[in-house]
């Protein structure tokens, strides 16, 4: 990213969904280039295929990252954004907590065969390409009772993984900052046409 690109932030105590709020912000013209939307809780958090994403107050990261084209009118149409967002998340988790999470194809973040988080990348597709990217990230921070649409896999939180002392010193804000930085970095890799690097990195983290 260059200094010409602005990064905006939007914080909320409660939202229906950070993804939906991100769409509203784009439609209203309030976002210029890159922005992130954060909520302490969501009333209608969702994952892929409309599945419910449990979002109790302060128990997780509920984040959506917005990318709008700057110099070019459209982003390239590709499925690699989801892979890049997953790579960004596991790298950020390792950087901040030291744990090595994995990616279960194609949208889930796992640790010890339990679900630590999820990714939902949505785009607005035009005839010539993508006019907006909204990348949703949900990560379980504190142990809580999750109400899920499916009971196929058990959830896990960072609180249950890292030591008590490490959790006391854990900063949700630093993890969000790291995720933001790495999402932007890996999306730039795609924008610059280095798609093979994304695929290679994703394969290294695949469960």
Structural class label: alpha+beta
Distance separating the two termini = 31 Å
Low-pLDDT residue spans: none
Q: State the domain count.
A: 1
CATH class annotation: Alpha Beta
Number of helices: 6
Count of beta strands = 7
C-alpha geometry: globular
Q: What fraction, in percent, of the residue positions are helical?
A: 25-40%
Q: Residue-averaged pLDDT, rounded?
A: 88
The CATH architecture term is 2-Layer Sandwich
Portion in beta strands? 25-35%
* CATH superfamily placement: Bira Bifunctional Protein, Domain 2
- Biggest sheet statistics: 7 strands, mixed
Instruction: Output the radius of gyration.
Output: 16 Å
Named CATH topology: BirA Bifunctional Protein, domain 2
Helices and strands, in N-to-C order?
Answer: EHEEHEEEEHHHH
Please give a handful of descriptors for the protein shown.
alpha+beta, BirA Bifunctional Protein, domain 2, 207 residues, seven-stranded mixed beta sheet, single chain, globular
């Amino acid at each position: 990213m260059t200094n010409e690109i602005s990064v905006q932030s939007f914080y909320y105590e409660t939202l229906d969904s950070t993804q939906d709020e991100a769409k509203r912000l784009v439609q209203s013209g309030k976002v210029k280039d890159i922005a992130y939307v954060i909520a302490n809780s969501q009333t209608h958090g969702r994952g892929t295929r409309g599945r419910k994403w449990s979002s109790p107050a302060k128990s997780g990261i509920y984040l959506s990252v917005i990318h709008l084209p700057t110099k070019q009118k459209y982003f390239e149409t590709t499925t690699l954004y989801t892979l890049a967002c997953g790579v960004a998340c596991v790298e950020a988790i390792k950087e901040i907590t030291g744990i090595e999470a994995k990616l279960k194809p194609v949208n889930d973040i796992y640790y010890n065969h339990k679900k630590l988080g999820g990714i939902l990348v949505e785009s607005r597709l035009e005839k010539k390409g993508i006019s907006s990217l909204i990348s949703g990230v949900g990560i379980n921070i504190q142990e809580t009772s999750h109400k899920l649409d499916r009971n196929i896999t058990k959830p896990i939180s960072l609180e249950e993984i890292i030591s008590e002392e490490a959790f006391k010193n854990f900063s949700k804000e630093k993890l969000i900052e790291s995720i933001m930085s790495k999402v932007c970095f890996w999306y730039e890799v795609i924008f610059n046409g280095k798609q093979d690097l994304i695929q290679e990195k994703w394969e290294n983290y695949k469960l």
